Structure formats: structure tokens, C-alpha cells
Amino acid sequence: MAKSLRKEVWESLEPSQYRSTARGLVHTQCFTFQGFQLAPTMEEYERLIGIPYDKSPPYLFKGHYPSWALVARLLKVPKSEMLKLKKNWNRVKGILVAALEERLQQLHEEEDWLAFVDMCELLVYDIMLFPQIERYVDLAAIDAFLGKRDRGEHHIVEILANTYYTLNYCSKKNGKGLRCCTSLLFLWLTTHLFHSSKRTRCPIEDHYWSCVKLLTKAEWTARLDEATKRSIRWYPQWNKREDVIIHCEGFPNILLMGT
Fold this sequence. Notes:
DUF7745 domain-containing protein; 6% strand; mainly alpha
């Protein structure tokens, strides 16, 4: 099954300042252990998210963010109210989470359940999938939400690309506080570091039966340092598949992202 993996990852990194970094992302390994490297793949994230990437088009940034008039229709507020809600935080346009939570409460009181559900999903997109600034929903997260709601686009490529960019940025800057979907990254990492006591095709059940304990920073460091190619779990049950990505458009093969 041929997929334009490299092209999709490249195009999903929309800001121009990401492009110089993006040139190296598909050629690097995220985690280097004793004698092997390990990195999340699109196939793994497809199963972790639970949305088949070949059943719907990928979300790709179209070159412009949604207008404030469109955001006003989404929130079901007049344009005059939208002028009060919109913010520009360090040149990142968006809305405070507190304002959305207040609007969510109003929709609950009005029993406008369709708009209420949209608002809940939008908050999930910002808090879980595309976090950037704490307690702040930017237009990028709103655009991604509208892509799924209005066009049925999946976010597998975008989430994975954002994860690679964040890891690369933090590594270069020796920074702390990952700004990506850390819950998925944690689930992916524990899948390979811990072995499940039961065979299951559900990633969540697999995590449960792996009995991952709460570890301190020192214990996590030791766990990562002691991982070897024999102790690692290369191929979890939930990721077994018949179709795999083997080439990218005209290229006869693609680089492995875990060896």
C-alpha cells in the first residue's frame, strides 16, 4: 500500500520557519538506545489514534487560518462579541480557554447540544492534540478541528509531524515542557518498553495489561538506559497488519524510522 508519507509530513508542517527543521525530521531517529534507534511511525499512530489513514484524507494546512467571522459562527456569537474575545499572544492569534469555557456553560444553559459538543471537541483539540500556549486556543487548533468536522480529514500526519518538530526543537534548545500530544507519545513509548501480559489488539487494553507503574525521574532514566534490542518490544499485537508503507510516490523505498 503506497502512501506519500514524506510529502504529507512535509506539507503538514505549515509555518515557514518549520521548513528548515523539517528537512531533517524524516531522516532522524527520535530515541537512541544501546545499539538501536526507535521512533514513532505513521502506522503506529494510526492504530493509537484509532482512525484508519486510508479511509479519509489527511489534514494539511491550506495556507490560511479561519477568519474571525467563521470562528464567530462556530462559537455562535455576534461579530461584536468576537472582537472582544479574540487575542494575539506573542503573535499567535487565538482565544483564551476561560472564554471558551464560559461560552460552553452558556450553551449548556441554552441546551444547544450540537454547539456544546463542538465546543467540547475544540477544547480537546487544543488541550490534548495540539497544545501550544497553556490555557489558550490558537487558530491552528481551530483550523484542525474544522478540517475534521467539515471535511472529514484525519490528523494522524499532523500529530506525528508536530511530535517530531517538538522533540527536535527541545533537543536543540535543551528545552523542557513538550508542546505536542504527550499522551500519545507516552502510550507509544511504554508500548515498546513494557510487555503486556495479554495479547490484545487494543492499544489501551495493551497498556493496562502492561502494568506500567508510576516511576520517578531517576527510575525512568534507568529504564531508558537499560533498554536493549532484546528487551524492547518491537512489534505489539495491536500493530499487526498486512499492508505497510513500502515506497513514497516514485521512490522505490522509504527510510526506516526504527531500526
